[in-house]
Amino acid sequence: MRFPVLALLATLAFPFSMAVAGPADSITVEHPMGKTQVPVKPERVVVMGIGALDVLDTFGIAPVAVTKEYLPDYLSEYRDDQYATSGTLFEPDFEGIFSLKPDLIIIGPRSVDQFDELSKIAPTLVFAFDEQADASYWQATRQLWRTLGRVFAIEDRVEAKIAELDAEFNAIAEHNRAEQNNALLVMSSGKNITAFGAHSRFSALFRDFGFVNAAGVQDQSRHGELVSFEYIKQANPRHLFIIDRDKVVNKGKSSTHQQFDNALVKATAAYQNQAVTYPDTGAWYITASGVTATEIMISDVKRNLQMQ
Q1: Domain positions in the chain
Q2: Superfamily of domain covering 5-156
Q3: Which entry of 29, 44, 96, 141 is 20 to 30 Å from 123 by CA?
Q4: In whole angstroms, what is the distance from residue 155 CA to residue 163 CA?
Q5: Are 217 and 225 a contacting pair, CB within 8 Å?
Q6: In whole angstroms, what is the distance from residue 11 CA to residue 117 CA?
Q7: Which DSSP state fits 129?
């Protein structure tokens, strides 16, 4: 049940100023909801969103509360009771968050609608792409990491990780351009198959990893363009990536592999060249812009390309 922030402020005994108290030093950061002044090296951080949690975990920053649904195995430690629950990906636990007296709240794209109310509790930062900027996945992700690098005063460590992964992206993109490799990325959800293009939520495959789009996908919405197995055969990609959304929604249960084991898919160059890959759904779909998630994405693409 949603707990309105104004009602909460009226019922709790301690003053609102205590909830926003934090380090004296602060910086102004830009994010999709505007500009926010946030403390430097905040000590009590609440996270709503798995991508931001992935980044904090990589750099050894422990939040006081996290979103515990859809956590990948490599973040399973945050299911422990020592970490409070910040709510779901879409709906904050306002009362719980307020009682923790956070210095900073970091939210993901699925909870952006709650930004204004969360900002009444503590400075709130959106860890998500600015969709108006038309940046590729890796371009936008680097900026998100650099923003957190400034907030937590770990710029040098962030830049070292960016340089490491820049080399990976560049090597894969150069390989694909040299080989003129094309690819098709589709997502399976229930009985629906959707395809994604170079300006979609899965832009990384084309704009960062350097594949040419094997099909003329025009729909750039978050849910992709509805297609069929016949469409996949006609596109005849040299490389095929299948995002299995059912595996996330149904908590590991999915029949996607069986559905794609058909004559139309087997007729593609991708199947015949053993270049059909089921990427890690959590990394590509849930944990967007996480450090480990990005490393998993690189690994998935290299596996498809049979690169060492």
Answers
A1: 5-156, 176-305
A2: Nitrogenase molybdenum iron protein domain (3.40.50.1980)
A3: 141
A4: 12
A5: yes
A6: 16
A7: -
CATH topology match: 5-156 vs 176-305: yes
CATH architecture, range 176-305: 3-Layer(aba) Sandwich (3.40)
Burial zone of 138 (CB within 10 Å; 0-12 exposed, 13-18 middle, 19+ buried) = buried
**Nearest-5° Cα angle at 173, 223 to 141:** 55
Integer Cα distance of 122 and 114 in angstroms? 13
Query: What tokens does 228 get?
Result: 């069929």
Residues 6+ apart with CB under 8 A from 44: 22, 64, 100, 101, 102, 103, 104
The phi, psi pair for 262, rounded to 5°, reads: -135, 170
Per-residue pLDDT of the chain in tens (308 residues, 90 and over written 9) = 344 444 444 333 333 233 333 444 999 999 988 999 999 999 999 999 999 999 999 999 999 999 998 899 999 999 999 999 999 989 999 999 999 999 999 999 889 999 999 999 999 999 998 766 678 899 999 999 999 999 999 999 999 999 999 999 999 999 999 999 999 999 998 889 999 988 888 989 999 999 999 987 765 666 688 999 999 999 999 999 999 988 777 766 788 999 999 999 999 999 999 999 999 999 998 898 999 999 999 999 999 999 97
